[in-house]
Input
Amino acid sequence: MRRRNRRLKLVTLIVLLASVGYFGYFWYINRNWVSTDDAFITGHLVTLKAQTEGTVVEILAENTQPVRKGDVLVRLDGNIAQIALQQAQAELGETVRDIVTLTAKIDTLSQRIIARQAALNQVQHDLKRYLVAARDGAVSDQQVQNARDKIRELEASIQEIRAEKAGVEAQVQGIPIERHPAVEKAKSHVRRAYLDYHRRNVIAPASGYVAKRRVQVGDNVKAGAVLLAIVPLDDLWIEANFLETQIAEIRPGQSAEIRVDAYGKDLIYHGRVEGLNPGTGSTFALLPTDNATGNFIHIAERLPVRIGLDPKDLKENPLQPGLSTLTRVNISEKGEPLLTSSARADGDAYRTGIYDNELDGVEPLIERIIEENRMPGHQVKVLTGD
Output
């Protein structure tokens, strides 16, 4: 009986020592870390939308396929945009001709003033002779009155023509045709129509992988319709939602270790805290909670912490947005001040240059239309294709 008790005590002692040793080791190793399993891979989802109206005639990319910035992914027929461009070109030509007509009208009005002035001079001379002849009774008073009435009529006519000429001059004189407000307005319509016609080819604004393709051949899409998404897998980070009781010592710059459920516990990704969000998740919710109404139940909130991934780890073992992770941050490191951030807004997901040269060909087109319509004997040539 004593031997049995000794064995039982020995086993109990071994279990206690093992437990103390395990918890001691666990505390020593993990005391400088805070962890959460409410953490996920996050990245950019570049939504590609139609920028003009048209019917889909070709799809050049499928889900999971890699694409590069500048690749044509979807083609629209562009018939509506082409018709609009032809109309805009015709309107520009018509506007230029209207300005040319107004300029010619100024010359016409000037000649009419000269003709009326000549007639006025003649009647004034006749009136002088009538007045001299009227003393001898050779001319009746009626003839003198008629001459005076004719003078007033011609003077009024000259003033009317001068006013009309001034109105026309106010519209055209002092401004070159190509800079006339009406022409500028028509030119802007051509640029807009040219841009819509050019954008019938939907181009990838960033490199990445195609996802969520919704468009089908034959779809009639409007401007703004979502076609597909592009996911750049070389620019990912962790959004770790730590409890508010865990964030007191988390600082930007501290190192982090990430285990992704998809790869198991043996594979560890390395990262670094880039910044803490300026508010908890509930603050930015679509319907924020109002704790001032009804019964209140205290619930520990979570604060999103952005953790950048090591590009080398990401290249060796690619990840996809949305994957679950177990993330922990080493709070023993000093880090940076709480409100600093090392997150950077650079790379393809933040800027693109594919739209910079879309209007390169429109100015020569506009100049040609203006020149062809400011000179008589020319016809408008409209764009009918590339």
